[in-house]
Amino acid sequence: MASKSRCDVGDPAGFFADLVRCETRLYNALNDRLRDRHGIVTSQFEFLSFLREHPGARVADLATEFAVGIGATSKGVDRLAKQGWVLRQPNPSDRRSSLLTLTEDGMRLVEAARNTYTERLAELLDAILVGSPFAAAAQVLSQLRATLERDQIGMPAG
After folding, report:
1. d(CA 58, CA 39)
2. d(Cα 143, Cα 145) in Å, to the nearest integer?
3. What are phi and psi of 156, to 5 degrees?
4. In the chain, where are the structural domains located?
5. 7-14: Cβ within 8 A, 24+ apart
């Protein structure tokens, strides 16, 4: 049975339900395409993309960016390193952490996967967003994210 949007004007619970269900379905669709074409899932693509843009980042930087616990983030990085896509190098200013960089294979993978990711998002969103109030929705989500991050709301404890 197909479900309908539960979001009526002034219904925060319905807005939240729609937001979460949309995010989950988009994430799953991206997972399927990335796995099929590149052997990775969306979370791996996101980590690799972040490291491409932020060479020398730490696990804590990834955890903060994605609002994921340090332990789960570290395990995710370990899986990427095991595949030969990420290198952990000692942090000269803090021996308790490592600096992360993409390997050449990791760089090639993220470049190829970026095209697939962008293509799939366009397939999923372009037709829906034409003529829609997308700019307003994007602005609301951007403001909500900025507020949550500024006030450190929803950050995992560990």
Report:
1. 24
2. 5
3. -65, 150
4. 32-148
5. none
Beta strands 86-90 and 98-102 are antiparallel
Q: Which fold has domain 32-148?
A: Arc Repressor Mutant, subunit A (1.10.10)
Q: Specify the length of the chain in residues.
A: 158
Q: How far is CA 37 from CA 28, 128, 131, in A?
A: 14, 25, 31
pTM for the complete prediction?
0.84
CA-based torsion, 90, 92, 95, 97: positive or negative = negative
Phi and psi dihedrals of 67, rounded to 5?
A: 55, 50
Element (H, E) at 146: helix 134-150
**What confidence tens digit (pLDDT) does each residue in 94-135 have?**
888 899 999 999 999 999 999 999 999 999 988 777 666 777
In this predicted model, what pLDDT tens digit does every residue of 47-69 receive, in sequence order? Answer: 999 999 999 999 999 999 999 99
Task: Provide φ and ψ at 87, rounded to 5°.
Answer: -110, 135
Q: Find out whether 89 and 101 touch, Cβ atoms under 8 Å.
A: yes
- Give the tokens for residue 75: 């395990």
Q: Which of 47, 116, 135 is nearest to 85 (CA)?
A: 47
